[in-house]
Amino acid sequence: MNALAANARVVRALGMRSIRQTFRRPQLLAPILVFPTLLLAIQTGGAGGAIELPGFPQVQSFLQFMLAGAMMQSLMLAGNSGGIALAVDIEMGFTDRLFSSPIPRFAIVLGRLAGTAALGLFASLWFLAIGLAFGATIEAGVAGALLAMFLVTSCALAVGGIGAAIALRTGSASVVQGLFPLVLVVLFLSSAFFPQELMIEPAKTIAQYNPLSFVVEGIREPMISGIHASDTLYALLAILGIVVLGLVLSDRALRHRLRVG
Amino acid sequence: MEATAATIPGRAPVAIPAWRANLATIWALMARAKNELVRVPGAAIPGVLAPTIFFLGLNGVFGALTQLRGFETGAYESFIVPVSMLQGAGFTGAAAGVNLARDFEQGWVDRLLVSPAPRWVLLAGNVLAASARALIPATFVLTIALILGAGFPGVDGLLVTYFMVAAMAAVAACWGSFLALRFKSQSAAPLMQAGTMALILTTTAYAPLALLQGWLQDVARVNPVTKVVEAARQGFVGGVTWADTWPGMLALAGLLAVLGGLALREMRRTAL
Description:
The structure holds two protein chains of two kinds.
Chain A: H1 3-24, H2 26-46, H3 62-92, H4 94-99, H5 105-133, H6 141-170, H7 173-177, H8 180-188, H9 203-209, H10 211-224, H11 229-260
Chain B: E1 3-6, E2 14-17, H1 18-39, H2 45-62, H3 76-105, H4 108-113, H5 119-133, H6 135-148, H7 154-183, H8 189-201, H9 214-222, H10 225-237, H11 242-271
Antiparallel strand pairs in B: 1-2
Helix pairs in contact in B: 1-5, 2-3, 2-6, 3-5, 3-6, 3-7, 3-8, 3-10, 5-7, 7-8, 7-10, 7-11, 10-11
């Protein structure tokens, strides 16, 4: 077997382990699915009247508008949960055992990220199903749904990289868990839940420059109007930026972990 | 009246009335919770931070909702701040459940259960400690809101809001304790948090009842916590009246009776 295939097997095995771990532990799965679904339901019912506000984009329903925000919240929390699980592995010595095995170091991180990406894909399917079940339409059809799924999955991978970097650097599950509120802050300061033009200052200005706003608009546009090349491109560039940041941070953190043990 | 023999080191045993012994036990359990807070101040941060983030986030994101016809106030921060204070109470109450589950895992509850203290006293210590702790996030969120321009609810409005917050924390602590005693594991934590979050947010939390959409309007109409939210909010959006206060108090009494009863039943079953 060549080295590439062997590495792919390791990544696949570790990725499957991370998915199984999430589905076996309710405390890891609940933030990824239960909380965003609960918030989606409540915000749709609570703030649904907002579509009558002047300046609100033309949408079929507030649920259709909110689906992208729920996916975004879910993928961010999947990244955070992936970081927590990696930190638990470090605390329990599992990562040390992997470090001493004859597999490349990057495969250990990549395995965790593959699991996070798979959870992102699952979350996108979950929320698309919920949206369709409750009457939301995907304006760009199957192609739009596939584009949204691709963006959610790749963004989950990107955000997971940052979670993994923090886990590798600190080696503490409670520190990574402590970032949970920060995830909410970053989301609230983006256009995930409301049109940026209708937000209140200073959230409005911050949302304008928040890379997550570009990602969420890229996911939302196929659902509420159609596929726009510019929105998709901006979303891809934002995800690429987060991927690069995650890779650089993970690389440094991995070196640090190997040095300090 | 029933009396209990109490032993103070260096003195002869004295008989004290049972109610005093119970009060002393409750006080000791509350002091233990307070010590936890003093010794690990970081433990209180998530409980304070989460409702504050929700308050700032919801205000920044949904602030424009006040432009809708039928909204009771032009300042969304005034409308949402009592909800965030109640959310803080919910998080604090759920945390009391998580702490109880942790005590279970570490064997501390087993030691409490072999003590001669009545079961309701053990539960009351945990629940009342949560009520007292809930005042910290509530005060923090309120201070931030007042700085950002929320209207001062008046002394009567403030007293009603704080009463609702403390009692809501007790309700959430009963729910958390019930689950902790049922599952005996911290893994039940998401259920404790999601339960209180759902109870508080499926009300008129985001908008007045008339502006809620579909199923949420139906649920909010029958959810007893809607009355609690309305009672806590009245001083922020208008005047305080008895007519808006007593339904909230009644709802809390009912929730406390049901969830407290369930928690107590679990505690008695645990002791068997």
